[in-house]
Automatic annotation (TrEMBL):
NCBIfam families: rnfD. The keyword Oxidoreductase does not apply. Coiled coil: none annotated. GO terms for biological process: electron transport chain; transmembrane transport. The keyword NAD does not apply. This is RnfABCDGE type electron transport complex subunit D. It comes from Sphaerochaeta halotolerans. Keywords: Flavoprotein, FMN, Membrane, Phosphoprotein, Translocase, Transmembrane, Transmembrane helix, Transport. The lineage of its organism: Bacteria, Pseudomonadati, Spirochaetota, Spirochaetia, Spirochaetales.
Length: 324
């Protein structure tokens, strides 16, 4: 089995390594089992498709599998994780022609599929952070965190976590999306190594914080089952949920994002940030990131085409004006 090397993808894997270790520390060794099942299933699916159509397996596969595993709740049944990555690799990547041709991010395609198909395990199967039982050995001394024997809601739902807890990752949540400091460090690393475009990241963060600040400053309240609820302050909203993780590692995917023009990158990132806030605020989905990424992926090719077309027309008019 030959695997095509991709330095940019390897750089992303290096950046994700601390998050994988943190996933064990915060939630237990079950993360390794999840990662192995996801990785083996994804590799098998891509190998079968590559063998049939004469494609090469690329190192991007391992990035997709790692991102997907880190996005899952700690108690997700392993068979659901396997079904998800199989769908993501086959229908989100290989069916389009393999790496470089897929429209949607395979990892987020996999997550969206099981989120829709298996809603309860994906939204109600969170457990308390292992550090609630002590700083060490925490998750390194257990199979899975039992700090809270009853499934716990994430800070995005309850809004009761402090900024300190959100920054370090001392909360319930998905395997790799709780520690803001590790996400930031990993994200800065891949931008420094040019494995992720900084314009997309900055546009995502800026648009998110701007719209969230407007809603928060105006005192916007949304009707819920328990009554009216105000929106979170911008910093809490930024550090809660998976937005930060997605802004650095998912929306910057070199294939499914807008990559041909600088204007396209700015618009694409801003579109993602705005969509996330709107979905979180006005829909029944508390997170919003999954569908915001898919919608942004969907419009990325059109965005690039429109911008390149506008530039071509401008250049043509300029040339015609010079001849006249």
């Amino acid at each position: 089995m030959k695997i095509q090397k991709q330095q940019a993808m390897r750089t992303v894997l290096y950046a994700l390594a601390p998050l994988c270790l943190a996933a064990i520390y915060f939630f237990g060794w079950r993360f390794i089992a999840t990662l192995v099942v996801v990785g083996a299933t994804g590799l098998l699916c891509e190998w079968l498709m590559a063998r049939r159509y004469g494609f090469k397996i690329t190192e991007s596969l391992f990035v997709s599998c790692t991102l997907f595993a880190l996005s899952l709740p700690p108690t997700i049944p392993l068979w659901i994780a396997a079904v998800g990555i199989a769908f993501g690799i086959i229908f989100g990547k290989m069916i389009f022609g393999g790496f470089g041709r897929n429209i949607f991010n395979p990892a987020i395609t996999a997550r969206a599929f099981i989120y829709i198909s298996f809603g309860v395990p994906m939204t109600a199967a969170f457990v308390g952070n292992a550090t609630q039982g002590g700083w060490f050995p925490a998750g390194f001394g257990s199979w899975m965190s039992q700090a809270d024997s009853v499934s716990a809601a994430t800070p995005l739902v309850t809004g009761d976590a402090s900024l300190f807890e959100l920054f370090l990752g001392l909360t319930s949540g998905s395997f790799g999306e709780t520690s803001a400091i590790l996400i930031l460090l990993g994200g800065l690393y891949i931008m420094f190594k040019k494995a992720a475009n900084w314009k997309i990241v900055v546009a995502s963060l800026t648009s998110f914080l701007l719209l969230q600040s407007i809603f928060w400053a105006t005192g916007l309240q949304i009707a819920t089952e328990s009554g009216l609820k105000g929106v979170s302050d911008p910093l809490t909203a930024l550090l809660s949920g998976s937005f930060l993780f997605a802004a650095f590692f998912m929306i910057t995917d070199p294939v499914s994002s807008s990559q041909t023009t600088n204007a396209g990158r700015w618009i694409y990132g801003a579109f993602f940030g705005i969509l996330t806030v709107l979905i979180r605020t006005f829909s029944t989905w508390d997170e919003g990131v999954t569908f915001a990424i898919l919608l942004a992926n969907m419009f990325a090719p059109l965005l690039d085409t429109l911008i390149k077309g506008a530039k071509a027309k401008k250049k043509l008019k300029k040339a015609e004006g010079g001849k006249a």
